[in-house]
Amino acid sequence: MTAVPERHTCSRAGCRREATTAILWRNPRIHTGDRRKTWLACAEHVAVLRDFLAARAFPLEVTPLPASPDRVR
């Protein structure tokens, strides 16, 4: 049996596109410094999700996801 490549989906509500970016964030009022949450974003929604978190002054980091084998051409 062949393994199906893992596909990461954008975290934006209603979006089913493949994610290309990870947004690591935390709410300092409820999360300790060693705990971070992860949202995944497609190219279209990176700014929307990042801006949502930044407007709340949540510490965040935006990093590209490694290319999945089916995206490498």
Mind explaining what this structure looks like?
By secondary structure, the protein is of the alpha+beta class. The protein is built from one helix and three strands. Strands 2-1-3 form a three-stranded antiparallel β-sheet, with helices on one face. The mean pLDDT is 89.
In short:
Helix content is 14%, strand content 21%.
Task: Please work out how many helical segments DSSP would assign.
Answer: 1
The computed structural class is: alpha+beta
Helical residue percent?
Answer: 10-25%
For the secondary structure, the number of strands is 3
- Shape type: globular
Strand content: 15-25%
One letter per element, helices H and strands E, the order comes to: EEHE
Averaged pLDDT: 89
Cα distance spanning the termini: 24 Å
Instruction: Describe the strand arrangement of the main beta sheet, using strand numbers.
Output: 2-1-3
Q: Which residue ranges are poorly predicted, with pLDDT under 50 across at least 5 consecutive positions? A: none
Radius of gyration: 14 Å
The major sheet is characterized as:
3 strands, antiparallel
Feature tags:
73 residues, alpha+beta, 14% helix, globular
SSE blueprint and pairings:
Elements: E1 21-25, E2 37-41, H1 46-55, E3 60-64
Antiparallel strand pairs: 1-2, 1-3
